[in-house]
Design goal:
Layout lengths: L11 E5 L5 E9 L21 E6 L5 E5 L4 E4 L7 E3 L8 E4 L6 E5 L6 E6 L6 H5 L4
Antiparallel strand pairs: 1-2, 1-5, 2-3, 3-4, 6-7, 8-9
């Protein structure tokens, strides 16, 4: 079993429900790293097993501990200056710092289950522009 964690605090994850719909959630903690929220209940102090994560599901905010293998990575935000590394088991693998980001999206066509993968964010147009809103 790998000891490295696949998901980290504030990663956005997804899963497919029984009806084939995509559900999104945010990782609150993994078995090693706990969020810095000091408002913890007795339930929150329960240690999470390796290979599991605590997720808050959108839009309800319901929290659930799930196996990392049952979800996929939807978004991991990096900002310039963030430390980057290679995931090599048992090695300190810091490689450098993030200098540039390229954002892509997977877009679902409204009213269908059709998904278009890897669209560059620079090719997307904001709804405010299309509808003429001034925010």
């Amino acid at each position: 079993m790998a000891t490295e964690h696949q998901y980290f605090y504030e990663d956005e994850v997804f899963r497919i429900d029984k009806r084939g719909n995509v559900e999104f959630g945010m990782v609150l903690e993994n078995s090693e790293l706990v969020s810095s929220d000091d408002n913890s209940d007795a339930e929150d102090n329960v240690k999470i097993k390796k290979g599991h994560i605590r997720v808050a599901w959108h839009p309800t905010g319901a929290e659930e501990v799930v196996c990392e293998k049952k979800v996929g990575l939807a978004d991991r935000s990096l900002m310039p200056g963030d430390v980057v590394r290679r995931m090599i088991k048992g090695k300190d693998t810091q490689r450098g710092y993030c200098r540039h980001m390229e954002v892509t999206a997977c877009v679902q066509v409204v009213g269908t289950k059709h998904i278009i993968n890897n669209i560059k964010s620079s090719n997307l147009v904001s709804l405010e522009v299309i509808l003429g809103f001034n925010l």
